[in-house]
Design brief:
5 strands; 22% strand; single chain; Rossmann fold; alpha/beta
Length: 118
């Protein structure tokens, strides 16, 4: 089964996503900020990254650019709050494959992951 890296500074959100993904059979890794995410990506090469935009130390956009610079084929889905449309556009231009607006539905997350893994 696919390996997914969940990146968010909010622990409750990482836990919620991890439970959701594990129950659907995925292997899940976690990172609490963009800096940890980049290092984890380089070490483990996950199949998909679910990454929050706003985080301390290194935000999601900076981490996305680092990951895409390291692996142009990286499959990254950005997690955004309502009202971050300009950030979403920059993320897509920078290589994000999709974005999910928080709060998110289980079905929307699974659909995005399934589409990228197809």
């Amino acid at each position: 089964m696919a390996k997914i890296l969940v990146v968010d500074d909010a622990e409750f959100l990482r836990v919620r996503l991890t439970k959701m993904l594990v129950s659907d059979g995925y292997e899940v890794l976690q990172a609490e900020n963009g800096l940890v995410a980049v290092n984890t990506y380089k070490e483990t090469r996950p199949d998909v990254v679910l990454m929050d935009v706003t985080m301390p130390e290194m935000d999601g956009l900076a981490a996305l650019k680092e990951i895409i610079g390291f692996d142009a084929k990286a499959r990254v889905i950005m997690l955004t709050a309502l009202g971050q449309e300009s950030v979403v556009l920059e993320a897509v231009k920078s290589g994000a494959r999709d974005f999910i607006v928080k709060p998110f539905e289980h079905e929307r997350v699974m659909k995005a992951i399934t589409k990228l893994l197809a």
